[in-house]
Amino acid sequence: MQSKDIKQDNDATTHASKSCDETMNDKRDDARRMAEELIAEEARGAPGSAIKAYFIAAIIGLAFWGVLYFIWRSL
């Protein structure tokens, strides 16, 4: 059984126009392409940003413990 694209308009069933189908397919393809590009960009930037975040957290942690150490030594 073959399925046909059908558009319903006020209880009247008519076949969807080919130009409308092509436009929707083009929009769907454009959206899929944009999503793939965004995913690819996100995957490229992830390792570097994770390492930077780790180093920043390590530096902040060391600074915090250093301040606590000097406060403790001054007591």
What does it look like?
It contains 1 helix and 2 strands; from the N terminus they run ββα. It has about 80 residues and is mostly helical. It has one domain (about 5-75). A two-stranded antiparallel ribbon has the order 1-2. Strand 1 (about 5-10) and strand 2 (about 10-15) form a beta hairpin. The longest helix has about 55 residues, at about 20-75. It is rod-shaped and about 80 Å long. It starts with 5 loop residues before the first strand and ends with a helix. The mean pLDDT is about 80.
Descriptive tags:
75 residues, 76% helix, 11% strand, rod-shaped, 1 helix, mainly alpha
Level of helix content? Answer: over 70%
Strand content: 5-15%
The major sheet is characterized as:
2 strands, antiparallel
Total strands: the figure is 2
Number of helices: 1
Order of helices and strands: EEH
Radius of gyration: 29 Å
- Please list the strands of the largest sheet in the order they lie side by side: 1-2
Spatial shape: rod-shaped
Distance between the termini: 86 Å
Structural class by helix and strand composition: mainly alpha
List the helices and strands and how they pair.
Layout: E1 6-9, E2 12-15, H1 18-74
Antiparallel strand pairs: 1-2
Structure described in brief:
This protein is mainly α and 75 residues long. It is built from one helix and two strands.
